[in-house]
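Hi, here's the filled form for the chain we discussed.

Project: internal
Contact: R.S.
Residues: 344
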Amino acid sequence: MRSIWNGAISFGLVSIPIKLVNATENHSISFRQIHLEDGGRIRYHKVCELEDKEVANDEIGKGYEDADGSIIPITEDDLAQLPIPTAKTIEIVSFVPAERIDPLQMGTAYYLQANGVPAAKPYTLLREALKRSNKVAIAKFALRGRERLGMLRVVDDVIAMHGLLWPDEIRAPEDAAPDSHVTVRDAELDLADALMDTLGEVDMDSLHDDYRDAVEEMIESKASGTEPAETPKKSDGGGGKVIDLMSALESSVRAAKKARSEGEEGEDVAEVTELSSRSRTKKTTAKKSTATKKTAAKKTTAKKSAPAKRTTPAKKSTSSKKTTSAKKPTPAKKKPTPRKKTSA
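And the returned structure, exactly as it came back:
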């Protein structure tokens, strides 16, 4: 990653040479302005008002417009000579719990890289100290012609810095709240809680920009001379009409539960994006295959249970024969006839 600023972290009497690199990147699709009649590019030219002619970039400098409209020229040397200790230093001023930082203040994120071998030890010391304290560092630094506020925290094994807005740059939220006083019933809160619980959590890595994908597909179709696929229109959810809040919440909870149960049954996870016809065919085939397997399993079970029913009467008849033979009377044994005595 290319560094955008070189300097040092001032940590008490410890100085840590670092490089500043962007931690985020913009994937938005940019468009050019064109002349609708012939498709020609529309360009902006930098013109001097006094001479009414175009000026090259190396002839352009900075100036401050005073209240009376006059321009006061400001050079880069003027800015470099300002007595700002943070011109090349990220000066840590305090350590606070992370929850003390209002997310409204957080802006651009940067990674701080150790600049050279000597910076590895103090860099690691600061990183481990932040980890063990469960705190973030509040720092001041100068970048792109102005002094800024920053927050240092640990991401994996890297120290990251978030640019912060100054406290006086945060607007008060009072004007954004509803004007009229509204009372929310406990039953409505219970339904809202149920909806939140049913929707559950989401894997942040699974989220992506559907709009950008659609724009890229449309551009590719136009470039190849084919018609882009039609996207089904989604319901606007009422179009701003006044609705029954309780009914809407109850319907939302039912829909969320249904989508969640369908996702837990198998591979058919409920999605917001409309499925293509090919995907539907695959899922329909899978469902039919599953139903066929269940029917075959039922038939196999029925076949296995049939022999058991036929063997039961045989056992009963055998038992009946044994009982009948036991009831027959046993013939009595004949007593031996006594022999007659003969005279001598």
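Let me know if anything looks off before we file it.
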